[in-house]
Amino acid sequence: MINSISLIAPAKLNLNLSVKDKLKNGYHSLESDVCFLDLHDKINIEISNLNSIEISDKSTFVLKDENILLQTLNCFNKEFKNKNKFKITLKKDIPIGAGLGGGSSDSAALLLGLRYFYNRNAYNSKKITLTKLKEIGLKIGSDVPACIIGKSLKLTGIGEKLEKIHIAKNYKFLLIYPNRILSTKLVFDNFDFKTENDLDPMYFNKIKIYNSLKFVSQSIEPEIKKILKILKSFEKIIAFGMSGSGSSCFGIFKSSEDFVNDKAFEKLKLKKNYFIWHGNKKEFGYNRIIY
Question: Annotated catalytic sites, by residue?
Answer without folding.
Answer: 12, 143
